[in-house]
Amino acid sequence: MIELSDVIRDLRSELEAAVDAAPADGLRFELGPIELEVSVGLDRSGGASAKVRFWVLDLGPEGSVKHASTQRVKLTLQPRLGDSGRSPYVSGAQAAQER
Predict the structure, then answer these.
(1) pLDDT > 90 in the chain, percent
(2) Residues annotated as region Disordered (predicted)?
(3) Containing domain of residue 73, as a range?
């Protein structure tokens, strides 16, 4: 299982790589809303500092999970560039040298 925060962090990293590969001119794509739907399991730790952690489930080849302990979560993320708040642009190139 992977923590939901790790999935979002890895998605951010992939999107940043795509933004870095965007050409200054030529065909670019404005990055719009991103919908991410995952099956998550909940892990609750008790005590004075109770915490709930969300784990993204890796179903593997069997694809079976106990439904009693899982939830489906759908997130809609709207990416923005940190300094300007503008929508980022991405290209189809996988690396800067492919442009």
Answers:
(1) 17
(2) 80-99
(3) 2-98
Tell me the CB-side half-sphere exposure of residue 97, using CA atoms within 13 A: 0
- List Cβ neighbours of 91 (8 Å cut-off, separation of 6 or more): 18, 21, 22, 23, 26, 27, 28, 29, 99
Residue 97: is its pLDDT beyond 50? Answer: no
Enter the tokens of residue 20: 């870095």
Nearest to residue 30, comparing CAs of 42, 18, 39?
A: 18
Long-range pairs of 47-54 with CB within 8 A, sequence gap ≥ 24: 53/3, 54/3, 54/4, 54/5
Domain count, the chain: 1
**DSSP-derived secondary structure letter, 88:** P
Which of 67, 45, 13 is CA-nearest to residue 5? 13
Residue 90 contacts residue 11 (beta carbons within 8 Å): no
